[in-house]
Amino acid sequence: MGRVTERRKVLRIRDGALSTRPDTLVAEEPLEIRLNGKPLAITMRTPGDDFALAAGFLVSEGVLATADDLQNIVYCAGATADGSNTYNVVDVKTAPGVALPDFTLERNVYTSSSCGLCGKASLDAVRTTARFPIADTPPVRVAPELLASLPDRLRAAQRVFDRTGGLHAAALFSEAGELLDIREDVGRHNAVDKLVGRALQNGGLPLSRAILLVSGRASFELAQKAVMAGIPVLAAVSAPSSLAVDLAAETGLTLVGFLRGSSMNVYAGEHRIALREAAAQG
The pTM is what? Predict the structure, then answer.
């Protein structure tokens, strides 16, 4: 199987002095996801947790909702011309009776680590129906002080980032601030899929009492993945997109951006932020 990191020789320039040295890089390899034997999508990802990634991707697409929907996931042998296994093709087999949306089976999209899902015909194609309506769940209340503490805890738990500096991360925290799970990947959306896929495999969906924290920005796709997994709070260390804010407002998702130090912006779902009354009035 492909490694999480690889070594490459680099020319290092420091204060005019030249030297050569090996450098540790994050690995990036394609993963083809097949659904019941049919090619569905290709994503550029960091190898590891591939089965969870595939399962999480299918949760966000509305295909899987519980562990019972999933029959098995296997690597496809003979994925190359010589019959060897690259461990870069997985086949997800759904349980009998699981409905497969027509658009999912026909589109054969390409997924990029930088831009998320590409080639969808319209915005409506990604507005899949959520199985776990966030607005119907008992409200989670999160103090700003707790949110402010999470980025440092996320960074401290990033083991591969320390060696490469080239990975995004996503983590699930409880409403009390307990770190539940963390995944790293060259793409933010892959890291979230790995988290959600693990939760599905462990019978943990919906994640109705969890906080999702992502490194970098919060795109529409990341907001969609949170909604599809039933996650009520999405926080990002950078900016959200306008569509992410729109989706959060429509679905009841609490969306926090620019989470840096004690500062943050709450773009939607502020009813879940436990503000001091005086501060809220100001």
Answer: 0.84
